[in-house]
Amino acid sequence: MKDETKSLNLYNYLRYIKLILIGGDLIFLNISFLVAVLVSYGDLSILNGKDYQIFLFIANLFWLMLVYHFKEFTFSKHNLLVKCLVKSMTLISYLFLALFIFAIVFRLDKISNIGLFFFFLNFLNLTVVYRITTIFMLKKIRKSGTSFRNVVILGAGNTATEIYTELSNDLSQGYKILGFFDDNTGDAKLNANYLGEVSDLKEFALHHEIHEVYIAMKDFDTTTIKELINFCERNLIRVKFIPDYRLFKETNNVAVDFYGHVPVVSLRVEPLEIPINRIKKRFFDILFSLLVILFIFPWLFPILMLLVKLSSKGPIFFRQKRSGEGNKYFWCIKFRTMKLNESSDTRQATANDERVTKVGKFLRKTNLDEMPQFFNVLIGNMSVVGPRPHMIKHTEQYSELIDNYLVRHYTKPGITGWAQTNGYRGETKNVEKMVKRVEYDIWYIENWSFLLELKIIFFTVRNMFFNDPNAV
Predict the structure, then answer these.
(1) What are the CB-based long-range contacts (under 8 Å, 24+) for 344-349?
(2) Which residues contact 428 (CB under 8 A, 6 or more apart)?
(3) How many CB atoms lie within 10 A of CB 404?
(4) Is the pLDDT reported for residue 10 higher than 70?
(5) How many CB atoms sit inside 10 A of residue 80's CB?
(6) What is the DSSP letter of 77?
(7) 247-288: per-residue pLDDT in tens?
């Protein structure tokens, strides 16, 4: 009884583990800032200035956004400590890059570079120690046998196996799988103890502490399950259903909405179907493209236009029909990078393509050939970020070969995209490579956020200055 009470107290306390860890982060962030100010100026009186107050508020806000977006406190027991630390240090780098840009754009002149450096160094050191301590603490609690949540699973098929694996690996939640119940164990693949048939659950629950029951059965008797749900709720055991949507479609992203009292399952979550997100994305596209057109085009365009004109005979710009949102075509504009040829609408550019000029090779390597597409963005048939638009022939070809190919046309195509920043840029030599590109495009559609948008732009700009082996 003593052990059960201890386990219940731990469960009630550590169910808030992520909030506790985030709170610790914010404490260390603010301590780091105060120490940096103290080292730089000798006292804290300068904190009365508005620049420092605004800067500190934005630092806290940015960090919360980064932690939420990148799921910082989801630790897997299979993740090496080094990987967790690298992830944390990467987020800290994003934070300070964002803060540095923020200070410049909004002219926070009183923020010193030395103070910012000390802030970065202090927060980095404290965070590394905090992460190491957190991971070892969670592992120690798990090894002690004291669990946050005791769980049993109804079912023994593939879905039950997958939920068992996920719950067992998640250190940040601390699940302990007591075992599984199923009337048919012939296909059982779970690495857990078989506890009996479904009807045996009640007796087991009366003698063991259970916090949650996961129902992962393909076939079940409705009356039996209703009785089990009533029993569980009378004994303060939470019940969770795991429907196997992948019987119909391979997907990891579903959403449940209620139309009145009727539950409706969407097999894809699309943040850009929410009107406010579409407005935010369009506003950003207009603002970003206008900034590029007004401040970069006036001096860069004349240089690139002259280089293209001198490279070979033909027009400066290349226009081609591409597949856009809803699979409707539009005219995509680029700087011409090839000699005039009759196969430009049917044949992809390849490595060492004899059609590509020397200037064109440079433009392709640096993405500068795509610059005119900011006009496409401004008029609304493209976005800054999105799946890259393909020529009409390739859309027709791959939509026949890849089942979910046209899903990438649920949103506007982009000048750059998630697939491109993950190595799937340039020539697609085989169908397998296109399948991977489509997977990344669909992931972007299902996981869109404004922060992801900025991340893709950052990686694209970085790749412009470093050699990208996939650019042809």
Answers:
(1) 344/318, 344/320, 345/320, 345/321, 345/391, 345/392, 345/393, 346/391, 346/393, 348/394, 348/427, 348/428, 349/426, 349/427, 349/472
(2) 348, 434, 437
(3) 16
(4) no
(5) 10
(6) T
(7) 666 666 777 888 878 878 787 888 998 899 999 999 999 999
| Euclidean distance between CA atoms 410 and 197, whole angstroms | 45
Q: Which tokens go with 56?
A: 């500190």
Alpha helices (H) along 235-357: 275-295, 297-311
Handedness of CA 321, 360, 383, 377 (dihedral sign): negative
In whole angstroms, what is the distance from residue 160 CA to residue 194 CA?
12
Q: Element (H or E) spanning 322, and its range?
A: strand 317-323
Given a contact cutoff of 8 angstroms between Cβ atoms, the answer to whether 426 and 457 are in contact is no
**The tokens of 83 are what?**
């990987």
By mean pLDDT, which of 144-148, 196-200, 341-345 is the weakest? 144-148
pTM for the full predicted model: 0.66
Q: Which of 134, 184, 136, 127 lies closest to 160 in space, CA to CA?
A: 184
At residue 291, what is the residue type?
Answer: L
- On the question of pLDDT at 80 being above 70, the answer is no
Full DSSP string of 15-53: TTHHHHHHHHHHHHHHHHHHHHHHHHHSSSGGGGSHHHH
What ranges do the domains of the chain cover?
A: 2-143, 149-242, 275-465
Per-residue model confidence (pLDDT) at position 2: 44
**What CATH superfamily is the domain 149-242?**
NAD(P)-binding Rossmann-like Domain (3.40.50.720)
* Contact status, residue 20 vs residue 134, Cβ threshold 8 Å: no
